[in-house]
Design a protein that fits this description.
- The chain has helices at residues 9-20, 28-36, 51-64, 74-80, 94-103; strands at residues 24-26, 42-45, 68-70, 88-91.
- 47% of the residues lie in helices and 13% in strands.
Length: 111
């Protein structure tokens, strides 16, 4: 069993600001579209995302060379952007992506 990687207050605030600025693509379909269009600069995947979802987004991120972090639960990611639970968020704003990458440690991806 893995330890949960919870979002801290600063990360939640950054995600909320990014959402209000229109720089967060939330949900599997929107995130996948942003990745395929080359707009995603960082992908956040919930620690409790389904195995198939995790594998699909890991493959997409690796193919496109997009950094990713596995952080927070579906509920935490959704709450941070003022929406229902979301398994995947794609960050399209450069300043938000850079700030989140500095804040969220790079960890081995767990399936």
């Amino acid at each position: 069993m893995r330890a949960m990687n919870h979002l801290d207050d600063r990360s939640r605030a950054l995600l909320g600001l990014g959402q209000r600025a229109g720089r967060i693509m939330a949900g599997e379909a929107a995130a996948e579209q942003a990745i395929r269009a080359g707009e995603a600069l960082l992908v956040l995947l919930a620690v409790n995302a389904g195995t198939a979802t995790a594998r699909r987004f890991l493959r997409l991120c690796r193919e496109k060379g997009i950094p990713y972090r596995q952080e927070g639960t579906r509920e935490e990611l959704g709450r941070a952007i003022g929406k229902s639970p979301r398994a995947v968020l794609a960050v399209t704003g450069e300043s938000f992506a850079l700030a989140l990458m500095k804040k969220l440690p790079e960890r081995d991806f767990k399936e």
